[in-house]
Amino acid sequence: MQTSLKVRLAAFMFLQYFIWGSWYVSLGTYLGKTLGFEGGQIGLAYGAFAIGSMISPFFVGLIADRYFASEKILAFLGILGGALLFVLPKFTTFGSFYPVLIAYCASYAPTLALGNSLSLHHLSDPKRDFPLVKTLSAVGWIAGGVTLSLGLQGEQSPVQFYLAGCVSIALGLFSLTLPHTPPRKTGRDVRLSEILGLDALALMKKPAFAVFILCMFLICIPLYFYFVNMNMYVTELGWQYSAAKMSLAQVSDVLFLILLPVMLKTLGYKKTLFLGILAWVTRYFLLAGSVNNPNLGTSLIFAAILLHGVCYDFLFIAGQLYVDDEANERMRGAAQGFIAFILWGVGNFVGSTLAGKSQAIHTLAQPVGAIAHDWHGIWIYPAWGSAAVLIVFLIFFRNPSRKTVTA
Question: What is the pTM of this model?
């Protein structure tokens, strides 16, 4: 009965992540190789998404949830984001580029929460249908990277922003076809603690939940070394069509997203989350091992890319489901807002900033051919950092004894 709705929601997810996938992977290469930004500046640029994510709860909680229908807000943000993306390439100094990028991220980040919320509101069986709808987000990311890389060959060109801008406007217009979703909190006074999800801090009284939040924050620090540095690494190695090749990560994402419910049922939360963190440890040791390895280097890099499904789904999607199970009905929304603030806000900002600083510190005084950085040094630190988080998680985290708790 809901076939038409599912198709529209899946198309929305496809367009939404097509936008993200067509510029996020290649941003570091464009900034470093085309505009000549330093490593610290590249890290801050990636941290712009974190700032947008920290602004997002205020926008959603103070404006979208109280005054406007979700589909209209999505339409406005999509068109506004497209306009900002078209303007962005005109700025070629960090001082001018950075604030416009922050403005764009602040317009895009709320669409993630609003799109998920709208989907969950209208699907008759969200636990069954939402993962299938969400699968199209990975397909959209792949399509964005492949179009930019193979179709336009634009990893080091402003064309990535024009491509994302066109699709962003299309997303805005398409949003008007989504089902009407009126504001949920009309006439209500909304507390700051509710907007930020701080009501969920009551869950921190549970030792296992506190360990989980600590480990999720800590793993974000090495995590963003991959996003900030990976495309730059393979570009210096001379890879062609790097964005398309890196989109194999999302192929893995689709596969393991389908497997996730089986893994959770079979292994439970602790073992599944453990595998997610272990995948990050393995990914970084693979990347460190690929440096100066002419025989196996390329194979190790592809292995690191293909681990993405385990890295992301077994850690972050499983983590969001864990939070949902631990929270009671009253604070479920606050708990999801809190974990999103930790992952995509504070954790993103700290991790991206440190990743950029690491890139700057490991810049070679004399480049060796196209290699301008000490890549082994860049990859080995997040490898050991992830391993430390894994040990903390393994020792101190305990499986939940029941599905829901009363705070």
Answer: 0.78
